[in-house]
Specification:
Helix content is 64%, strand content 2%. By secondary structure, it is mainly α.
Length: 494
């Protein structure tokens, strides 16, 4: 017990320092003056050096060997610490600090390149990021992670136990039904109309706050800010969200907000007994995305909830050109092959992820050079979506992920959709009157069910275990695809 207590106390301090590092990242994206970028990179590198030293301290290995956990939660905590210890021990301190320093700088360089539609401005930095992440993946693979595969070793950081081959197999089963549905919808005689008005920034942000409240966001432990690329940051009792505003597309703001509330609600819903322990955060990014995607789509884009949102938009913006709640439901769920992943409809979204997954696997294997990435992106996008990329901000520069080294992250979005499809099926069986509450703008019955059945467990179970426990069945892509086909065939009157 002494070894276990020493280990958990040491880990508590490490977790607290990790939260501080996360807060630096949040500040960089929301509040930091642009002239501070180089200094912030040094700060991030410094704290990463401290964290890496703590995570690879030989005492951790000794405590793990001697720790006698008193209960299953303790044993799971020790197992997670041991896994992290093994992964961190594979990465030289120099490499960990250099990745932190470079990716902090790269974020700003990417944002500049995106604003200027200047790929050449970003490519040298991306070359260095890819090289460093490939080096990290090679070190992890050599240490036995990811089965010796460089990409799988990186993927394992975001979705423990997943493999590129396994994900490719899931995508291979999903793709034919998604493409067939997409073609049927785009060829339908009936199609919902898009929005054609302008929507003021202040009104959007006020309504975004109302949406966050409707989904149970705890404002005493969070806040809403603006960012170039919306994200959620933090855990425990400090989980913050961001959104962005386009005056011609308020859905970008509204559904980005709901999406990020899903992430934050997961973190805020974890059992307080796990605070600042390895169990005190979401178990994987796939499970995390299941929360953001079910909040955003199966709940937020449902006929019931959009009926309430239609009324609130009328109160906020006056007559905005949509005649009634039924037409508004169609407009919210309009299917079109747009450029931007975060604005994509539910049918196209996974096709965006499949493209990025294939490209980043090739980057990490060396089969695709960074210099050829833009051409590869544009060619694949034209093939998959039937539209040519018009400018880099709508192409390879649209996502922040690669600039900050998140290789292996993208496929977890689609896994999250798969999990969300399963959770939605189970939720609606368990709470059959959920639509009546959503029609009142009240998502509490849904969020309460998700908190009780999934969120509160944090890292206590593996990703597959926690979803299966919540659903009562082994998760697969079937419920998601069935939901999409039923929903969109009805909207498009097929």
């Amino acid at each position: 017990m002494t070894a276990f207590s020493d280990l958990m106390e040491y880990q508590r301090e490490t977790e607290a320092l990790g939260q501080i590092a996360g807060r630096l990242g949040w500040d960089q994206e929301t509040m930091m003056p642009p002239g501070a970028a180089e200094q912030r990179a040094e700060e991030m590198a410094a704290i990463e050096g401290v964290l890496h030293a703590r995570r690879t301290d030989p005492r951790v290995g000794e405590w793990i060997d001697r720790a006698e956990a008193p209960d299953p939660a303790g044993r799971r905590a020790v197992a997670l610490i041991a896994r992290a210890y093994g992964r961190n021990a594979c990465i030289p301190a120099r490499l960990a600090a250099e990745i932190a320093r470079l990716t902090s700088m790269a974020q700003g360089i990417w944002a500049e390149a995106r604003a200027k539609n200047d790929v050449a401005h970003f490519l040298p930095t991306l070359e260095r990021v890819v090289a460093l992440k490939r080096e990290a993946g090679q070190a992890l693979a050599a240490g036995g992670f990811g089965g010796g595969d460089v990409y799988d070793a990186l993927l394992d950081d975001y979705e423990p136990g997943a493999t590129g081959a396994g994900i490719a197999e899931i995508f291979g089963r999903m793709r034919p039904r998604l493409v067939a549905l997409r073609e049927a919808l785009l060829g339908a005689r009936h199609a919902p109309e898009p929005l054609a008005h302008r929507f003021g920034k202040d009104g959007q942000l006020a309504l975004a706050r109302d949406l966050a409240t409707a989904f149970g966001y705890d404002w005493t432990r969070g806040r809403l800010d603006l960012a170039v690329h919306p994200f959620s940051s933090g855990s425990g009792n400090d989980a913050r969200i961001t959104t962005r505003v386009s005056e011609t597309d308020p859905f970008n703001c509204f559904y980005s907000t709901i999406h990020e509330v899903g992430h934050a609600a997961y973190e805020l819903g974890i059992d307080q007994a796990y605070l600042l322990t390895p169990l005190g955060a979401g178990v994987s990014m796939g499970v995390h995305e299941s929360q953001s995607r079910i909040y955003e789509n199966q709940l937020g884009r449902s006929r019931a909830f959009t009926g309430w949102l239609f009324g609130r938009m009328g109160e906020t913006f006056g007559d905005f050109g949509v005649p009634d709640a039924d037409a508004f439901y169609g407009t919210v769920n309009r299917v079109q092959p747009g450029y931007i992943r975060t604005e994509a409809d539910e049918v196209h979204y996974n096709l965006h992820i499949m493209m990025r997954f294939d490209l980043e696997r090739r980057l990490m294997s060396g089969a695709l050079a960074v210099a050829d990435l833009e051409d590869a992106w544009n060619t694949r996008f034209a093939d998959d979506f039937g539209v040519r990329v018009d400018r880099p901000a709508n192409g390879m520069l649209q996502d922040v992920h690669w600039s900050v080294g998140l290789f292996g992250y993208f496929p977890t979005y689609a896994l999250g959709n798969v999990y969300a499809g399963c959770l939605n099926k189970a939720l609606r069986a368990a709470v059959p009157d959920i639509d009546a509450a959503l029609a009142r703008g009240d998502a509490a019955p849904a969020t309460d069910w998700l908190r009780e059945n999934l969120q509160r467990h944090g890292g206590l179970y593996t990703p597959a275990e926690v979803v299966e426990r919540a659903c009562g069945f082994t998760p697969d892509e079937g419920p998601l695809l069935d939901y999409l086909e039923t929903k969109f065939r009805a909207i498009y009157r097929l």
